[in-house]
Fold this protein.
Amino acid sequence: MLGRLISITRKEILHIRRDPRTLAVMFLIPVIQMFLLGYAATTDVEHLRTAVLDRDRTSASRELIEAYRASNYFDLVYYVESEEELARLIDSGKARAGMVIPAGYGETVTRKERASIAFIIDGSDPNVAGTAFSAAQSIAQAYSAELVEVELGIKLEEAIGVEAIPRVWYNPEMRSSNFMIPGLIGTIMMLMTVILTSLAIVREREQGTIEQLVVTPITPFELVVGKIIPYVGVAFFDLGEILVIGTLWFGVPVRGSIPLLLALAFLFIFTALGIGLLISTVARTQQEAMFLSYFIFLPSIFLSGFFFPLEAMPRILQFISYLVPLRYFLIIVRGIILKGVGFELLKEQVIPLVIFGTVLILAAASRFRKRLE
């Protein structure tokens, strides 16, 4: 019995060694996950892109702006002239916060009275919003202490100083379900389309039935389209399920256009199908296709902003995230559902998806045609 067991074990080890691609994936996935989770799995949010609307334009307002700039929490990258421009930046996701300094701020500080500023926060991500909420108030309090005791020459308890009044948009209660459920739309759609599409075509090759289809009048294009159409339907059915359950059970508001969401979801499915089809041209077995799918899917989850804020990641990972199609779709779906934005503010996310989808489908179709030949 022991001899037979050893023989079977030796045979399986030889089988694994003869498949270097699967072997590489088996050992690379833990390493990649460790590095991704080690650096990406953090909620210590810093360097939030912030817009500034300075209606006062005095030396006092400029000093306050510099106090926020000196912190690690806010990067003051936009200076706007109106609240409409500020709102547009936050709606589009270019800015995650906005500071509004009212006219007369400098005079109020000079009179040693309470001076209030508004701090608008994008609440679509509760982790980011919570950090920005606390940081906006703590920086104002620290600046007040310096302003009151040093510049005005009086004791802190004798004056009020500067007060930051945060206003959280889109998700005032900062409910995590409002953030997670829209994100599940993208992750589940990607999981279903990538894995199922790659497995469906590899299954035909593994069972030897794809050769039977090749000798029929069916063209390679018809074969590929026929295989992936059912999974497009599955992906849209899952999308509908999540929307219905999220809205009726979890109370997630849908503020934007459902037809727009469906149209852009189809664009994302188009991209995900390209990934699955490309995997099917590389993998020889269903097991290998599964490994490769997870090899792509898991980093996409970590680098898309689904679990962890992109602002909290190192710069190199933020740069790599631009190569992840899921990143763009999560911005789209959260923008439509939570912010109610239209296509005009989503164009910067749509264009990369169109490019990714076109390149992936063409590359996969080319490789698939060669494999059939």
